[in-house]
Amino acid sequence: MAIKSLLNASVVTLMMLSITGCGDSNDLSTAGKDNVQHNQWPATRAVDTPPPLPEEFRFLLELTAPALDSVAFDLLAAGTDPIAFGLTFADIGDSEVLEYQLAAMAAQLNDGSRPAHGLYHWYGHPHFNDQVAMVPANFTNDAGLNLYGEILLPYRGAVPPGDGPFPVIIALDSLISNVAVYRWWHAAFADAGYLVFAFDFSGQGHSEGTDDDRDAYRVTDTSRALTWLLEESPVKDFVDAERVGVIGHSLGAITTLEVQAVDDRFKAAVAAAPIHEGQSNFDSADIPIMIQTGDHDGPVAPVPFVNPVLLTRTVYDKLEADRAMIVAEAASHAQHTNSPLLPSPTWGREIAGLYSVAWMDYYLRGDESALDDLLSSHPHLSSLNTSDVEIDGTIHVLREGSFGP
User: Fold this and answer.
1) CB of 184 within 8 A of CB of 338?
2) What structural domains and CATH numbers belong to the chain?
3) 347-399 pLDDT, tens per residue?
4) In terms of pTM, does the model score above 0.85?
């Protein structure tokens, strides 16, 4: 991957030199300048990270230091995966992650974030923050509120924008969270060649507004985000308006189901943990939609052991086109997040990424080879609840659960 990135970067450099090397750059025609711009992505910046952990909190690290990075924590992670705590112990046993989480929590005391949203800080995860090429963005919603977003460049910007247009993923976050909470998922799509636009709903993360604004505008915020990306953003010339997918988790999944019913620009969707029919209000669903959930995807997030998969099936039964139901073994409501310490099994993200990217590859790109992943049976699909994919009326059972559909 590093060699490929280096080669792609070299190609970009050579292309730029070939454009600017003929004569003085000050003599470039307007067309020449446009050509230069067409082969350059907008400037990227590093994602937000917290200041170093203050000295007064370092004693917390010293208390746990003897056990960190030990075999004991690896065993704990493996032993608690079936009850949804494997990732929690893996994070606790990683000194880098634990120090980062403590630093982020300390930073929240003074960084202007909303106290009620304290569970989900906006600093992401140290293992994923450097896996994206991010262009910060701001746009105004229908109520005049300034919303924050992040454009993630396909292949981390290693290919020139002229290789586009690129398919688009609009990514929606959950209640009281922000774009950084899902950076691993966004990165998975960007590394697969999608241009990802993730934004904070009104009243969340770095966006203006209140909880009431979020509830009132989250669906229109999503449509407005897509309009801005296609018509006003610095990457508008490099995206394919005919190949747009939407993904979301929890409240973002509920919004995903609602927005696809009213905005026909979305061609495929992945709704992760939409909870149940009472919270997912949509009148139609005639595009391909994948539902993802887990054995312990509780209705009170992120509490394990409370299983609403049968309730989620009521949402699934409303889908009218090609559809998929992916249930991960022992996964909790936190499966799709990268917030350190939250309970979920270590295989949760792998399952979520594998099937969601394959879904979009098949329906947005028309990539028949994506069926190899889409119809595969991951060893940690649930054995309690059925995972299946329905394409053109044919149901492919990936793993049949003992509790049935």
Assistant:
1) yes
2) 122-399 (3.40.50.1820)
3) 999 999 999 999 999 999 999 999 999 999 999 999 988 999 999 999 999 99
4) yes
